[in-house]
Amino acid sequence: MKLSNRLMAIANFVPKNSIVADIGTDHGYIPVYLIENSISKKAIGTDISKGSLDKIIEYIKTLNLEDKIDTRLGDGLEVIKPFEIDTLIIAGMGGLLIRDILEKNKDVTETIVNFILQPMVAAKELREYLVENNFKILKEELVKEENKYYEIIFAKKGKSYIEKEIHYEISPLLIKEKHPFLKEFIQFRMMELNKILEEIKDVNTEKSKERYLEVMNKIKDYKGVLEEIEG
Questions:
Q1: Would you call 136 exposed, middle or buried from its count of C-beta atoms within 10 A (0-12, 13-18, 19+)?
Q2: What is the rounded distance in angstroms from the CA atom of residue 107 to the CA atom of residue 77?
Q3: CA distances from 23 to 86, 126, 140, 152, 201 (A)
Q4: pLDDT tens-digit profile of 139-184?
């Protein structure tokens, strides 16, 4: 099976011979890919929607993979037992929801070795949570697909150190490797911030003035990262 760029980048982080859970597995593509390519020994695909899960069950049956891929209906890590898996994938959700899933079931989270997380929004808040809760961010990937950018985080338990506040927004690992998409990703972010400035520049309230200053400072920080990449 051929995965999209985003899903392939996620699958590439999965260690060989792992036992993996894909939370909110959607179409079940990642568990199927991992088993068909002998990357994982066993996979668990979960979904909160019975309708979605029923489709995945049918898909797995057509491939005769029922003995290798387990499907479970439920919310977050509530359907995973402690020590049952070594690798966790949570992709395609907001960073705050991913954070809440990790926090809500700490008895399970504490027994997992590898964390592969792909927030759709709020990557900054997710990184802050990871750093503050003894996760070490070991690698990151940035994927462009259909003019959208996706940040993928690979972490284990350990200590992370963040030197600058902007590194919660823009991964220092991507800056260090001068990732090929990073420059245009930052320029895209700056363009979005400039739109916000346009919207609030003539609004004369204390809140809008504070917001204007905040956005200006963020643009300045982004420019600093650009200079670092280009330097």
A1: middle
A2: 10
A3: 13, 16, 19, 15, 42
A4: 999 999 999 999 999 999 999 889 999 999 999 999 999 999 999 9
pLDDT average, residue stretch 35-42: 98
Boundaries of every domain in the chain: 5-161, 182-230
The Cα–Cα gap between 69 and 21 comes to: 10
Distance between first and last Cα of the chain? 41
User: Residue 134: CB partners within 8 Å, gap ≥ 6?
Assistant: 157, 158, 159
Q: How far is CA 196 from CA 134, 192, 199, in A?
A: 34, 7, 5
- Tokens at 31, concatenated: 């568990």
d(Cα 25, Cα 69) in Å, to the nearest integer? 12
Give Rg (Cα) of the chain: 19
Q: What single letter denotes the amino acid at residue 192?
A: E
Report helix, strand and coil shares of the chain as percent, to nearest 5.
Answer: 45, 25, 30
Check pLDDT > 80 for residue 45. Answer: yes
* CATH node for 5-161: 3.40.50.150
Q: Give the mean pLDDT of the chain.
A: 96
Query: 138, 159 in Cβ contact below 8 A?
Result: no
In the block, residue with structure tokens 């993928």: 152
